[in-house]
Amino acid sequence: MSNALISNKNLASYDYIIAGAGGAGLSLLHNLMEAPSLASKSILVIDKSFQKTNDRTWCFWDANISAFENLVHHRWNTISIHAEGFDKELPTAPFSYKMIQGIDFYNAVLSKAKTKTNIHFQEATILDIIAIDSTNPSKGAKVEWEGGSAMGDYIFSSLLPFQMNQLPTAAAYSKSLQSSTTSNKQAPFLWQHFKGRVVQFDTPVFNKSIAKLMDFNVPQQGATAFMYQLPLNEKEALVEYTIFSENVLAISEYDKVIDAYLAEAFPGSTYITKHDEIGAIPMTQIELASNQAPIYTIGALGSAIKASTGYAFQFIQEQCKNIITQLELGSPLQTKVHNTRHQFYDAVLLDILFHHKMKGTEIFKRIFAKNEAATVFKFLSNTSTILEDIKIMRSLPTSIFLPAAIKVLLRRS
């Protein structure tokens, strides 16, 4: 079969079907192509469009050479945190804070995949994914789209059931999830929602060596909000307004805050907007979908997002690598990546934010004020030691965090 879009009239069978060609789906495709024992497997990738745009930016902390090092658009070795009466710069060594643009990632993976005769593409909106025999996963599953369908031994889906312009409230979405899944039914649910702009000023205004990771000197919206400023050079930066809350804003509300922020930070300077991005990330430990062989969820749908921060890129890579290892060994697939003690920490922090027990501004200010950036990054990337965890915990008030921790433990029992 050719590498072109397959005919809707043909019912073909594949070793693997990847439903959704976003960050998670293409990360899995990349890892399949890199695994010698799996590289020749027949693969079908289905997405509503393969005409990709620069719809998102991924940033992550990395102390090593990334598998996507050639795609890193920019990196920073110093960050800063800002709140009322608090300004601190922190060197990140041995970590670097790295940025990859969505369009570069999409193009790199798709370009390589299109050279492979065993990889096929179907441009369509998926209607359903159905196990052939729920009692016998070895019979595979069927993916249906308007006008066609295909069979697969394994199906990997990353298709989230919402669009930004149709986003339900966190309470409504959480309720629907709790009725359809079985784990952590009482766990909190927040959206991390944001609007960002790549702006270019007519004069130098940025310190290109420092990533302003969190500037809390913005409207908090009754929740936790900060501005994120990543300079690409002295004139250009990604400036993004991010909020952790139950409800998203109207697009005009994000713009209003960004406009005011830039006007106050750089009075008298003029700029153009080169690019916009907007999105929402679920922050929860409620499962977003059931995960049962031969249909597996990946990415945000597969709970790869770190519930307390919304960071996903590195965890998606870990999830994909784990899947590859299990496929190579022929062992049952386990796609969870947040299954350590850090998942408990996430649950406690999310519970405090959700119930407004302590302002997010104060939590992050205390953590960064009393610890080295590298220690914080290890904690937030689930690689910290017990001793490093204790250092982080000692930064925070026991009177607030201990009751929340007990509450989370009781919820899990």
Structure description:
This protein is α/β, with parallel strands linked by helices and 413 residues long. The protein folds into three domains: 12-49 and 101-161 and 288-329, 3-Layer(bba) Sandwich (FAD/NAD(P)-binding domain), CATH 3.50.50.60; 186-283, 2-Layer Sandwich (Alpha-Beta Plaits), CATH 3.30.70; 341-412. Helix content is 30%, strand content 30%. The chain has ten helices and 17 strands. The chain has helices at residues 23-34, 102-113, 170-180, 251-265, 313-329, 341-354, 360-370, 373-380, 386-393, 398-412, and strands at residues 12-19, 43-47, 57-62, 72-76, 78-83, 86-91, 96-101, 119-123, 126-131, 141-145, 148-157, 189-201, 210-215, 224-231, 236-245, 271-284, 295-297. The strands form three sheets. Strands 1, 2, 8, 9, 10, 11 and 17 form a seven-stranded mixed beta sheet that branches. A seven-stranded mixed beta sheet has the order 6-5-13-14-15-12-16, sandwiched between helices. Strands 3-7-4 form a three-stranded antiparallel beta sheet. Strand 5 (78-83) and strand 6 (86-91) form a beta hairpin. Helix 1 (23-34) crosses helix 2, helix 1 (23-34) packs across helix 5 (313-329) and helix 6 packs across helix 10. The longest helix has 17 residues, at 313-329. The protein is globular, with a radius of gyration of 22 Å. The model is unreliable at 1-9 (pLDDT under 50).
